Amino acid sequence: MQTTMPELATEFEVTAIELTYLPDRQQALENMTERSDSPAVAALVNALRQTEKYGTPLAGSLRILSQEFRQTRASKAEEKGARMPALMTVPLMVFILPTLITVLIAPAINLAPPASSSAISSSVVLTLRVRRIHVPQPPHSKSPSASKRSTPKSFPSSTSE
């Protein structure tokens, strides 16, 4: 604990020294709460006081306290997650939306005819340019094999005699 959280380790060392020298345990725990401004440490001290006062098992009260801390941490994470859509709206509108509009409108700008005084409106010209499709026509040959392909074959009817 000394390497991961040195401040908390130091606080526990000071509290352990106070527990050995002070005549009242409650005073040592109260000093620990006053030195740290953390609500988690205050909740831990409160749980220690209650277990000493009422004689309840320490393991059970620490288990309940850890569940409360986990629930608090999960609710804070959910609150942050719920705020994200509101926070992402402005960057979306500033950075992504103009790019999307540019990508969608750029082909229409490139297809638009230059400004002229013709009677046809630009939307009609644009429509004509978009619908210009070349469909190849089948060859018109008079060969006998071509005429055979074009006539449908008739199948003999089955009559029972």
Based on CA atoms alone, the radius of gyration comes out at 42 Å
Summing up helix and strand content along with how strands pair, one would put the structural category as mainly alpha
Mean pLDDT: 79
| Helix coverage percent | over 70%
From N to C, what is the helix and strand string? Answer: HHHHHH
Gap between N and C termini: 104 Å
Strand content: under 5%
The shape is: rod-shaped
Number of strands: 0
What's the story with the biggest beta sheet?
Answer: none
The number of helical runs is: 6
pLDDT < 50 stretches: none
Walk me through the structure.
The protein has 6 helices and no strands. It is an all-alpha fold and 161 residues long. The longest helix has 54 residues. Helices cover 71% and strands 0% of the residues. The model has no long low-confidence stretch (mean pLDDT 79). The protein is rod-shaped. α2 runs antiparallel to α3. The protein has a domain of 79 residues.
List the helices and strands and how they pair.
Blueprint lengths: L5 H16 L3 H11 L3 H16 L3 H54 L10 H10 L12 H7 L11
Helix pairs in contact: 1-2, 2-3, 3-4
The gist of it:
This protein is mainly α. It has helices at residues 6-21, 25-35, 39-54, 58-111, 122-131, 144-150.
Which keywords apply here?
mainly alpha, 6 helices, rod-shaped, 0% strand, 71% helix, 161 residues
